[in-house]
Specification:
single chain; alpha/beta
Length: 314
């Protein structure tokens, strides 16, 4: 299978190299300074827990030409970067499948219009990390919390999606196939956006957040409100295991978030990404504010965290 990974940030670099190291025919698309880094030095990965460092010289390109053909294009960019690359993907009609692994709580009409529903696949990464001085420090998330998640637009468990799931599994990523990816992404933004805004409200520091009971209480209230919005709009919490966030007593959820927010794990997959992708976090927070308004229920905690995020504009 001939694969193009479109985007060479933390996740694009990680997924491209893990697939490449597993023997797949992978090309990585990078731009600007990042292209120069990879062309000159390869992709440098460091495991956040193990400290293991690898250097891989994956084939790297700057552009996707209209006449090129890939069996699979994996789009791994920030949500606020998608609109500029849709015309490029639309012009490339030869590639068979295009997997968007991007935050998107707003539905997929724009993507379908650009690439066609027959080529579109949906997904979300089960990893996080940071990139500094050309080095990607990463953490693959436990499947208990969030496996790499894949879906067909209609939710069917097709042979195509099963084949691509196997591809990621072979590369070391625990993987799940979802029957309702739109619900999954709305659920994800409902709680992750609140977490990101709480991090920003605490000065961009998870350890500082852990010492702020007022913000932790506000965060728990915001998560409850976000799930109330989903319920009002008849959107099921997906995956169902996330219902535990609101099924537990609020005090217990607050205590767990206090412990988690001061860990290296939280810093790698939550704090660092929030700080590196403020524009994306702002967009997603605004998106969920719009979703919440459509539910016509009060969301004071969500609103306060959203305002904190706006006030700390980076």
């Amino acid at each position: 299978m001939k694969i193009l990974v479109y985007g060479a940030g933390v996740l694009g670099s990680l997924y491209a190299i893990k697939l490449y190291q597993s023997g797949y025919d992978v090309t990585l698309l990078a731009r600007g300074k990042r292209y120069e880094e990879i062309y000159d030095h390869g992709v440098i990965l460091v495991g956040s827990l193990s400290g293991e460092r690898t250097v891989s010289r994956v084939p790297v390109v700057r552009t996707l030409e209209p006449d090129e053909m890939y069996d699979l294009i994996i789009v791994l960019v920030r949500a606020d970067q998608v609109s500029e690359l849709l015309p490029v993907l639309a012009a490339n009609r030869n590639s068979k499948s295009i997997l968007f692994m991007v935050n998107n709580p707003n539905g997929y009409a724009e993507w379908i219009k650009a690439v066609g529903i027959e080529r579109l696949l949906l997904g979300f990464a089960g990893a996080g990390g940071t990139r500094k001085d050309g080095v990607v420090t990463y953490h693959v998330v436990s499947p208990i919390l969030q496996p790499t998640t894949l879906a067909e637009p209609d939710g069917t468990k097709s042979e195509r999606i099963k084949q691509i799931s196997k591809l990621f599994e072979n590369a070391g990523f625990p993987t799940a196939i979802c029957s309702n990816m739109e619900g999954w992404q709305k659920t994800h933004v409902a709680w992750i956006s609140a977490v990101a805004n709480a991090i920003l409200a605490a000065g961009g520091d998870g350890k500082a957040l852990s010492q702020r009971p007022d913000l932790l209480k506000l965060l728990v209230d915001a998560i409850h409100e976000g799930f109330d919005v989903l319920h009002k709009l008849s959107i099921p919490v997906t995956p169902i295991k996330l219902k535990i966030l609101t099924a537990m007593p609020k005090g217990l959820t607050q205590f767990i978030l206090k412990l988690w927010s001061k860990t290296q794990h939280f810093d790698t997959i939550a704090t660092s990404h929030t700080l590196a992708a403020y524009s994306e976090m702002k967009l997603l927070s605004e998106d969920f504010q719009a979703i919440a308004r459509s539910a016509s229920i009060p969301t004071p905690a969500l609103d306060r965290l959203h305002q904190y995020m706006l006030d700390c504009s980076m």
